[in-house]
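Before the break, one more example. Copy the sequence into your notebook; we will annotate it together after we see the structure.
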Amino acid sequence: MKFVLDNWVLFLAAITSGLLLLWPAITRGGGAGRVTPAQAVQLINREKAVLIDVCEPAEFAAGHAVGAKSVPLGSLEASNELPKNKSVPVVLVCASGARAMRAAGILKKRGFEHPHVLAGGLAAWREANLPVEKNA
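Here is what the structure looks like once it is written out:
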């Protein structure tokens, strides 16, 4: 015990280092995978994945990926807009990807088997020159 008390700074550094190494695994959205825009398109075309935009309605109206359904993050837990078949892949989109990560965790808790987060969000979608539409 004396050794631990004499070297508490080293133990604190070791614990902090371990937590920082585990942080990406902890914040991975409940086991959801990140996908690039190209991978998202493949999921949509090959596996009939559903594209869900978790932005607020005003953000969705300002611009969203073509074919995306609007299900704001705040109403995700009680939404009836999600696919009934929980084994269908779901690609979650928001402006940057942060809200989509939280949404993936919620969908995992609701029993969805394959939630995916669009890495980089709508910005990455636009950067890949994929179609975006606006609501009038």
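The chain has six helices and seven strands. The mean pLDDT is 89. Try to locate both features in your own notes.
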